[in-house]
Amino acid sequence: MKKTGVCPKCGSLDVYNNSNQRAELRRVLQIKNPKAIFGRGSFLVSYICLNCGYVEDYLTEKDLEKRRDIIKNTWTK
């Protein structure tokens, strides 16, 4: 969806994203460093198919790079 603009569930091209919205209006994923007292959320870019309602969320490249090590060390693969 992100790269093709095509819904992987129904094949529709009626896919929209919220990347043009201010970050604080987007969904947030909490990825906390276990050594830190306070964590900071990562704002997600959501892609939604208006035909079937399927949704995919992505971290921005910047947030993914910042949090890659935390995710590798604290999340289950």
How is the topology of this model organized?
Layout lengths: L14 E3 L10 E3 L10 E9 L5 E5 L1 H14 L3
Antiparallel strand pairs: 1-3, 2-3, 3-4
Name the features.
1 helix; 18% helix; alpha+beta; 4-stranded antiparallel beta sheet; 77 residues
**Average pLDDT rating:** 88
Helix % is 10-25%
The chain-level structural class is: alpha+beta
Show unreliable segments: none
- Helix and strand run: EEEEH
Percentage of β-strand residues: 25-35%
- The figure for the number of domains is 1
Spatial shape: elongated
Q: Give the number of DSSP strands.
A: 4
Q: Give the N-to-C terminal Cα separation.
A: 23 Å
Structure description:
This protein has 77 residues and is α+β, with helices and mostly antiparallel strands. It has one domain (15-74). The chain is built from one helix and four strands; from the N terminus they run E-E-E-E-H. The protein has one helix at residues 61-74; strands at residues 15-17, 28-30, 41-49, 55-59. Strands 1, 2, 3 and 4 form a four-stranded antiparallel sheet that branches. The longest helix is centred in the last third of the chain and has 14 residues, at 61-74. 4% of the residues are buried.
